[in-house]
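Subject: design request, 166 residues
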């Protein structure tokens, strides 16, 4: 993700966007086509490969302020790093409302999206509920982002999704 994008304490935080992770290039292509069907294309939808995301995340981690760990920004990029290491591709979609963000999540979920996170000014909302009914537990800088898996680790969710054919 380009460094001229929105940052909070040195970490990418694209307020007014939905950040979507998809298992591979084919899924990202299909999801982008679905978003174009909603009238979102061109400047509203940006695509990133797993390698592009890893480069950006590593740059963010290197330049992050210690204050980035106070909110969820650092936990999110660490979770995103796990997905990128597993070959996930990304769409960053500019949205104008919560309703439009929900439409984006529904459209990309149909194409295998693992995550769709709507970045608001004060909160970052997960728009895709994880299968399996694991309750979300408290998140912290030490515990990281709760992946809603038995161990709470994002890598477990990736492995389970791949085993299920996702």
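Subject: RE: design request

Done. Sequence follows.
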């Amino acid at each position: 993700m380009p460094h001229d994008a929105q940052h909070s304490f040195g970490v990418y935080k694209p307020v007014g966007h939905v950040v979507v992770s998809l298992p591979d290039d084919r899924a990202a292509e299909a999801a982008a086509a679905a978003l174009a069907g909603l009238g979102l294309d061109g400047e509203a939808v940006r695509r990133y490969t797993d390698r592009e995301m890893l480069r950006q995340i590593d740059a963010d981690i290197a330049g992050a302020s210690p204050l980035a760990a106070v909110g969820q920004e650092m936990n999110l990029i660490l979770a995103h790093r796990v997905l990128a290491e597993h070959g996930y591709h990304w769409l960053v979609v500019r949205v104008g409302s919560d309703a439009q963000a929900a439409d984006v999540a529904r459209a990309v979920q149909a194409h295998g999206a693992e995550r769709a996170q709507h970045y608001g000014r004060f909160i970052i909302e997960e728009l895709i509920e994880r299968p399996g009914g694991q309750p979300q537990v408290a998140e912290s800088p030490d515990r990281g982002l709760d992946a809603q898996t038995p161990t709470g680790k994002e890598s477990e969710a990736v492995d389970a999704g791949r085993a299920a054919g996702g």
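Residues 138-148 have pLDDT under 50 and may be disordered.
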